[in-house]
Amino acid sequence: MKSTIQQIGTIFVLLFSFNLLPGQDVSLQLQIGGSEQVFKGIGACFGAEEYEVTNNMPFEINYEDNQVTVNQFGSVLVQFTVSVPLTTSPGIYYGSIIYEIYQIGGSFCFADTLDVEIEVIPALVPVPDFSASPSAIIEGGIVQFTNLTQNTVIEWLWEFGDGDTSTLENPSHTYAAPGTYSVSLTAVGLPGSATETKTDFIQVFESGTPGISLWSFEVNGSHLSSPAIGTDGTIYFGTRGVDDDGFLYALYPDGNEKFKFNTSDITFAPAIGKSGTIYVAAGNIERLYALNADGTLKWFYQEISDGNISSNLAIGLDESIYFGTNKGDFYSIDSLGNEKWHINLNILSFGPSSGVHSISIDTDGTIYLTATVGVQEYRVFALNQNGDIIWEWDNNCPYCPMDKLSISKSGVIYITGSKIFALNRNGTLFWAYPADANNPNLLSAPIIDEKGNIYIGSRFAGNSGKLYSLTANGELSWILDLSAYIPPIQKRLISSPVLGNNGDLYCYSEGGVAFGINHDEGTLLWNLPIVPPDFNPNGYSFGSSDGN
């Protein structure tokens, strides 16, 4: 019986990680009862679609659905698992696997034989080990345990510290009551058993305890986009993966995956329209996607004249989508995926920092954006809904960045960068902080509360690790220095702060620490290290569950 080959993108990781020369033997050393997964390149066949396998192995071979794949260059890769039964005697065993590869339409392409040598050694006593995610939860939460035991195991016995046990290899467990729990894993092998106990390993807090990790979700690649939260609590964010195999992920509020959609590469936060449509930009392939709420493709737009998408997505009053490129083109796309208009802002291109950066839409439909127009020359533009430029504002300071932009309910436009600038709706300067110097540290997006107070995170040397609060008139309310809580790898406060329903302020540092802050007094309420102190993250972003 023929099986279908799975087509995939170029797998440079496999090409550099494994010896893929065809015709070479596979040599393994396995304990009795052990298993090992094997990757191998067996040749090239452009248009390969089907394969057949003839197995002449003395042991069990576990084939997976994606056993044979072919990359876009036609290189055929095989994947299988060799398992040594518990009844096997030590010794050296030989076998072979024959792969017959067929092209589209069923025509034969080539056959290749893998000769396999397996040295079977006696099983060793297990060395038990395990991990848990998360290790701190709210009562009623679930902890996923992962077995990390070395050597052959035939039985597992978990003791969770609350009287419950499990014999699964990778169990999950619900902790119903607050407390601190020790966890034990006993691994039974052929020669004997061993036990690993981790004392006070799981912390369970009462419901409502702040600063506790509720769950985590792991992805491949870099998580570069900030999350967007739907009205139903669904969490959307994008990743950049190996060879541009990034995804838009949708998670339920409990952290379980709802769907994922391959978008090649996502750097900017998704945007959610009033219709529930999810809009996401794949900047490197110059494509705008619109997805239905179930993750199916609604439409995509790819008639971008030049450059990569370099800005966030903004949604207008009629659900028109706006974005800019690093070449200075600015687009308006309607909710059906049709271009309404696009203009060029006459921006000179000088590398990846050029072009349109940040976009916000006013309540009257006016579009405001920041852009780099030359060699480190920054402007703010105001456009009407037809794409006509109403005004542009220059801070008259070359090499003084103006990056992120937000609009208050009263119509004041706030821009962060070398200073915090406040502009009136007519494009005149309201105020600037600091008034007498440039401070190239204030680059997070400004967040505005109901009273018009502004909150900004700092970046780069000098003021790194600080959070600022200003009044609506540009007066400093407080500065909170959080650098003492951030690991020394990166002492920068990188995320834009968010406001919770209770009025508390939250932010996240590049060093992997989340903070809860009293927004009136600027005092630290709690801090939570999310990643190990020696971890150097590739992406840093933050969002809230109340739409901020």
Structural class: mainly beta
- Total DSSP E strands: 45
Rounded Rg? 28 Å
Overall morphology: globular
Gap between N and C termini: 55 Å
Beta-strand proportion: over 45%
Number of helices: 1
Instruction: Give me the side-by-side strand order of the main sheet.
Output: 1-5-8-9-3
Average pLDDT rating: 83
Largest sheet: 5 strands, mixed
Binned, the helix content reads under 10%
Task: List low-confidence stretches.
Answer: 9-24, 533-548
Provide structural commentary.
With 548 residues, the chain is an all-beta fold. Helices cover 1% and strands 47% of the residues. Strands 1-5-8-9-3 form a five-stranded mixed sheet, with no helix packed on it.
Main features:
disordered C terminus; 5-stranded mixed sheet; 548 residues; single chain; mainly beta
Q: How do the helices and strands line up, and which of them pair or pack?
A:
Blueprint: E1 3-4, E2 6-7, H1 12-17, E3 26-31, E4 35-44, E5 48-56, E6 60-70, E7 75-83, E8 91-103, E9 108-121, E10 130-133, E11 136-138, E12 142-147, E13 155-159, E14 165-166, E15 172-174, E16 179-188, E17 193-205, E18 228-229, E19 235-238, E20 246-251, E21 257-264, E22 271-272, E23 278-282, E24 287-291, E25 297-301, E26 314-315, E27 321-324, E28 329-333, E29 339-344, E30 355-361, E31 367-372, E32 378-383, E33 389-394, E34 402-407, E35 413-417, E36 420-423, E37 429-433, E38 447-448, E39 454-457, E40 466-470, E41 476-481, E42 498-499, E43 505-508, E44 513-518, E45 523-529
